[in-house]
Amino acid sequence: MRFHAEHRFNGSEQAVAALLADPAFYLGLVLPDLSKPEVLEERKDGDDAMLRLRYEFVGSLDPIARRLLGSGHLAWIQEVRVDRSACSGALRFEAEKDPRRLRGAADFV
Closest Cα to residue 55, out of 99, 94, 108? Predict the structure, then answer.
């Protein structure tokens, strides 16, 4: 499945890029039915930054989804790469246990 989304932020491109590269931003988000993320890795090299985060779904799943996913926990690894000088980057995620069943990617500018 492919889709396009556009979001507008009240801030400069540089400020938004810096925010997306900051682990404190993700740790401060309160999202429904999701655990607070665990920061698995953080790297900065000049204007390039990379974060790896682990999320877990803590809400209740529809019985059909539960049948597809099994009885285990639904957790995934999200990787965010940001080029702060270009104000762009990429986001990738995949299920922790079976990446073939749940995965995705997005580029942002």
Answer: 94
